[in-house]
Amino acid sequence: MIGMGSNERYAELPVRMEVPEEFVRNFVPIPKEYVEEAYRSDEYLVFIGPQHPGSGHMRIILRLKGDYIVDAIPDPGYVHRGVEKLAETRLYIHILPLIERPTIQDSANFDLGYSRAVEKLADLDVPKRAQYIRVILAELSRIATHLYDTGILAVFIGHSTGYMWAFGLRDVINEAS
User: What is the pLDDT of residues 96-131, one digit of tens each?
Assistant: First the structure.
């Protein structure tokens, strides 16, 4: 302000619109436009997570203006286990355990997808008998996964008998496969 009693306004100063590089670097992998918008509008970006809320890893990106939440963006699937980097130095067959571990129960279906991709790349023909066995194993694995989920749901709602039935049936499938 130039004079206290005058009608003059504050001088319009040019606002620097580019975001400092170190600011952007700390907030990857969210889009650069999102960081720039928050920076220009004097908002805070707060990262919650990544968390594991039961059904997968997730983080939440909050945009705050003071104490108010302006926007909450869920970012599910925020998992990088380094499988790609580990796979660079291994044979195709050695990668199977890396694929199975994160799936817990349904590893047969994940192995099936990976194995079929490798066979297609290598132009391999799989015998019919092996294809049938794979399908049976994948279906048993899928059913066991549903039983696992049902058993855990029974525990969450306080029904211990439902847990015992589901896990008892799942054990039969696990022993068969």
Answer: 888 877 777 788 888 888 888 889 999 999 999 999
Backbone angles phi, psi at 163, to 5 degrees: -65, -45
Q: CA dist 117 to 30, 71, 106, 113, 121, Å?
A: 30, 40, 18, 6, 6
58 beta partners? 51, 76
DSSP string, 56-103: S-EEEEEEEETTEEEEEEEEET-----HHHHHTTS-GGGGHHHHHGGG
Q: Which amino acid does the sequence have at 177? A: S
Q: Is the pTM of this model over 0.85?
A: no
The whole-angstrom separation of Cα 4 and Cα 163 is 76
Strand-pairing partners, residue 62, are 46, 72
Distance CA 69, CA 77 (A): 23
Q: Which residue has the tokens 């003059």?
A: 8
Strands of the chain (E only): list them.
Answer: 44-51, 58-65, 68-76
d(CA 101, CA 173): 19
Residue 172 has what DSSP assignment? H
**DSSP classification of residue 110:** H
Name the CA radius of gyration of the chain, rounded. 27
